[in-house]
Design goal:
By secondary structure, the chain is α+β, with helices and mostly antiparallel strands. The chain has 2 domains: 64 residues; 141 residues, Heat Shock Protein 90 (2-Layer Sandwich). The protein contains 5 helices and 7 strands; from the N terminus they run ααβαββαββαββ. The longest helix is centred in the N-terminal third of the chain and has 32 residues.
């Protein structure tokens, strides 16, 4: 099965499964409304947890299929990331996680899909925060080169085991207990659609995701 056939299959599967999932969720809400006592039952909590996971998987499958569809507009990426960092810092205070954004010079505006890029960096920030249960810093650094912009997202935590690195961006590959295995593959799809690249290095507890975006596209 080639990539196009795989995407078509995922799209059909996501569409066909979403309807009954939506119905089941609706019936569960009606059931609780009629019999509120069941919300305290352990099995009800488990049903809700698994329905949430299934809905999340369907959402991520949809994002994966649509990752390469871009709506580009002139974007100040440094300002965009600074805004994301401000929002993230307010949410991550209880975890003692702090996000900083630094640039080595003035960064020119680029033609980017802002929504998709926010999705990429939100995913990387969330992963970094989860990797630091005791808190720490997430450092986003923008470096301007002659023909491309480099964006590093770095954190210091336990690091990523070397055996996980080769297939880290492959779809449906996850090493998390409740992961869908699509988050980083969606990131790669979005960055590649921008004619860029994303890679990762992890050594001695230092993990760095590196994104390269062309200055002209």
């Amino acid at each position: 099965m080639n990539e196009q056939e795989c995407r078509l299959l995922l799209s059909k599967f996501s569409h066909e499964v979403r309807n009954p999932v939506t119905l089941i969720n609706s019936f569960l809400q009606l059931l609780v409304k009629e019999h509120p006592e069941i919300s305290s039952y352990p099995f009800y909590e488990k049903i809700n947890e698994n329905m949430t996971l299934l809905t999340r998987l369907l959402d991520e499958m949809s994002r994966f299929n649509n990752a390469a569809r871009l709506h580009r507009e002139e974007t100040d990426l440094c300002a965009l990331l600074s805004g994301l960092a401000d929002s993230g810092n307010s949410v991550l205070v209880p975890q003692n996680v702090h996000i900083t954004v630094n640039a080595n010079t003035d960064i020119p505006h680029l033609l980017l899909d802002q929504t998709k890029l926010l999705q990429v960096f939100y995913n990387l920030i969330r992963n970094a925060a989860e990797a630091m249960p005791d808190g720490g810093d997430i450092r986003i650094t923008l470096t301007l080169h002659e023909t491309e912009l480099q964006v590093n997202v770095a954190n210091r935590g336990p690091g990523i085991p070397p055996e996980y690195l080769p297939d880290l961006f492959e779809p449906f590959v996850t090493h998390k207990k409740e992961g869908t295995g699509l988050g980083l593959s969606i990131c790669r799809e979005i960055i590649q659609a921008h004619e860029g690249s994303i890679s990762v290095s992890s050594s001695g507890g230092n993990t760095v995701f590196t994104i390269l975006l062309p200055l002209s596209s």
